[in-house]
Every structure is written in C-alpha cells, then in structure tokens.
C-alpha cells in the first residue's frame, strides 16, 4: 500500500542556505565586532547586488515597506498618489502613512498591473505621483506610465517587491521610474530574512536616501528629517549566502513553472503570460479561475488534502475599510477568482504530483 502522507504543503517555503555557510559569516561578524550601521557585510551585499542587478545605486533597508515609505519621503510627495488596488496592502498603506492619499486606478486583466489607459482619468490638480506594482514580477507598462508622468509632471515609484532579477529589454526592472523598491522578506524569491532596498538613478538622491534611512544626519550635520531604516550585518549575511544561489533558484523555479503549465494547461484556467522582452524570475504561480465558485471549489478541495494555496492578492485594496474607495471592477473580480498555488524549488516530484493531481481532481466533480 502506498503511504498516503498528508504532510501539509504551504504556498511557499523559505529558502535556507547551508547553516555552515551562514556560520562563516557569523565568524566574520564576531571578528569585526560590528553589528549594524552600514557595516562591512551590508556594504559588501550592496555592492554585490548593485553588480548582480546592474543598477547604479542601491540602499539596503530594514524591509520593503520602509523602502516604499522612504521613497515617498525623499521625493517630498504631497497630495494624491495614483496607485494600484491589486497589490499587497503595504503599497497603499505606505502612501497613507506618509500623509498622502491613495487614488486607486483599476488594473488591466492582461498583466494584472495598473491600466495605463485609465491613469489620466484619475489625475487632478493634487496628483503628485504614480506608485505601481510589478505584479508577480511581470513588469508594468513602464513606457506608457513614463509618458503620462512626463506629460503631467508626476513622479513615478515602482513597488518591485516581486521583481528581483527581472529584466525588461535587457535592463533591470529596478532601473525604471524615479525610484524603485524591493522586498527581501523571507517569503520572497531573494531574501535576507527581513529586508528591502531602494534603487535610484542619481547620486544626490542616493545620498539623500542613505542619510534619511539613518536618522537624517551625517555626523553632526542634521540635514533631513530621518528615520531608522537601516539593516544589520546578520541580515546582510543571509543575503550574501542566498545571492550565491539565486541563479539556481530561478532555474529550478523555471523548471517547476513549465511542469505546472504542462500539467494544468488543459483545465479552464488562465495563467500569467511572460512577455517576450522580459527575463522573468518565476516568482509565483497564480491561476485565474472562470469564476469565484470554481476558485472556491478548488481551494476547499486542496485544503482538505492539506494543500494550502493562497488568495493573493485578496482583498482588492480599494475594498479595505480604512482605504478610500475606488471604482476597480477588474481588480475586485480578479482577486475573487485567483489562487497562488504552492510554488517553491524544494518541492519534490511526489509533492508536485500531489498538487497537480489534486487541482485536476477538483475540476472532476
Ligand atoms: C512583500 C511585499 C511588500 C512588503 O515588503 P516587506 O519587506 O514585507 O515589508 C510590499 N509590496 C508588495 C507587492 C509585496 O509583495
């Protein structure tokens, strides 16, 4: 008899490097006696990320949310920021936290990113910026957004929390917009336990971010209103370990992506499509059902078998009680019909088959 193990499978599993490798960095921290405040490991991680991603300036931060808040702060944005309702709540909550107002602009069903065709309808005299998310790592319509921004004198920030390692037209996605941010949280494809970054393209802004994330002063010169957005040597050490493996991680995700596509393509599901000019990172495996009932049926069926996909993103941010409303029918509908399936390189063949079989069976009843 086959042993029908019902070990739970969750939507993701954090990648952990060899413990011994992490310990070699711990030894360095003990030798240096330097734990935080732009120590040698943080500096080394920043340089390695700068080279790996091919970006001019990077500031490593405590997390991806503080990176968004710092981006809004250093650009001195005041007023309405046009943003997407289809993202993690941190995108819009950062806008409010910084004293601005999110104005929700619906998404395109094609790429689940902000729909550039309706952005201009949302512009008022108070609009100061556009903050858009590269959803699941698929780039926004950056050219259309840039055109609108230039014409209307708006700043552009991209929430690139999902987009580590993604290139558009052979250029890092983090090089688009006035500023881009990333999250290096444990659930993301490249992680430093907690962590994030801001990418900028000019030296003055990079320096401003560097000081703003460190209480706003340089020595005794208090130049900016600052905050503590620094990260530690221990977090940087995790990043240094994981960066060495990132190419293998993305390759393994690509293989798994192809196995899922092959296994599920006959079902009435819609998958994300990767544009030709994009080098993708295979960060997530979302599937869109024909309707909410079908999504719920599969979700319940999987959960009974201890497989836990995640409704991500749900709810559409414009429906959250403390958020301003917005007319976003596409975002609301997608968030009702979408599930992210368990998707991470540590899944073995047996687990992968268990997931694919369960999804297929959920359609048979
Ligand atoms: C994870 C995530 C964030 C927040 O990043 P943290 O590092 O967890 O603060 C912001 N935006 C999006 C789209 C995310 O997925």
From TrEMBL:
Highest rank taxon of the organism: Bacteria
Task: Give the InterPro entries listed for this entry.
Answer: DegT/StrS_aminotransferase (IPR000653), PyrdxlP-dep_Trfase (IPR015424), PyrdxlP-dep_Trfase_major (IPR015421)
Name the UniProt key words of this record, in alphabetical order: Aminotransferase, Pyridoxal phosphate, Transferase
Record keywords: Transferase included?
yes
Tell me, what's a Pfam family for it? DegT_DnrJ_EryC1
> One MF term from GO for this chain?
transaminase activity
Q: What name does the UniProt record give this protein?
A: DegT/DnrJ/EryC1/StrS family aminotransferase
Species the sequence originates in: Autumnicola edwardsiae
């Amino acid at each position: 008899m086959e042993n029908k193990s019902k070990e739970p499978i969750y939507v993701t599993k954090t990648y952990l490097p060899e413990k011994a490798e992490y310990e070699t960095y711990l030894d360095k921290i003990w030798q240096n006696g330097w734990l935080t405040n732009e120590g040698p490991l943080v500096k080394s991680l920043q340089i390695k990320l700068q080279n790996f991603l091919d970006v001019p300036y990077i500031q490593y931060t405590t997390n991806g949310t503080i990176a968004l808040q710092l981006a809004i702060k250093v650009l001195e944005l005041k007023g309405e920021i046009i943003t997407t309702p289809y993202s993690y709540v941190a995108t819009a909550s950062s806008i409010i936290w910084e004293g601005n107002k999110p104005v929700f602009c619906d998404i395109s069903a094609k790429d689940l990113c902000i729909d550039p065709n309706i952005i201009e309808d949302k512009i008022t005299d108070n609009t100061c910026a556009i903050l858009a998310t590269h959803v699941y790592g698929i780039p926004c319509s950056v050219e259309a957004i840039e055109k609108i921004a230039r014409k209307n004198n708006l700043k552009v920030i991209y929430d690139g929390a999902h987009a580590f390692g993604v290139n558009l037209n052979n250029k890092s996605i983090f090089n688009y917009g006035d500023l881009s941010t990333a999250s290096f949280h444990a659930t993301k494809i490249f992680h430093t336990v907690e962590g994030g970054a801001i990418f900028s393209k000019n030296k003055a802004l990079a320096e401003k971010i560097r000081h703003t994330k460190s209480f706003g002063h340089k020595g005794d010169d208090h130049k900016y209103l600052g905050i503590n957005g620094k990260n530690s040597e221990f977090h940087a050490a995790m990043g240094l370990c994981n960066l060495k493996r990132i190419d293998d991680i993305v390759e393994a995700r690509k293989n798994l992506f192809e196995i899922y596509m092959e296994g599920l393509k006959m079902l009435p599901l819609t998958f994300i499509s990767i544009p030709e000019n994009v080098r993708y990172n295979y960060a997530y495996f979302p599937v869109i059902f024909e309707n909410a009932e079908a999504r719920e049926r599969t979700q319940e069926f999987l959960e009974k078998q201890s497989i836990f996909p995640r409704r991500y993103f749900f709810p559409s941010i414009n429906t959250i009680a403390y958020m301003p409303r917005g007319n976003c029918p596409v975002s609301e509908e997608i968030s009702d019909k979408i599930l992210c399936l368990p998707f991470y390189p540590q899944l073995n063949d047996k687990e992968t088959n268990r997931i694919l079989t369960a999804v297929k069976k959920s359609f048979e009843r």
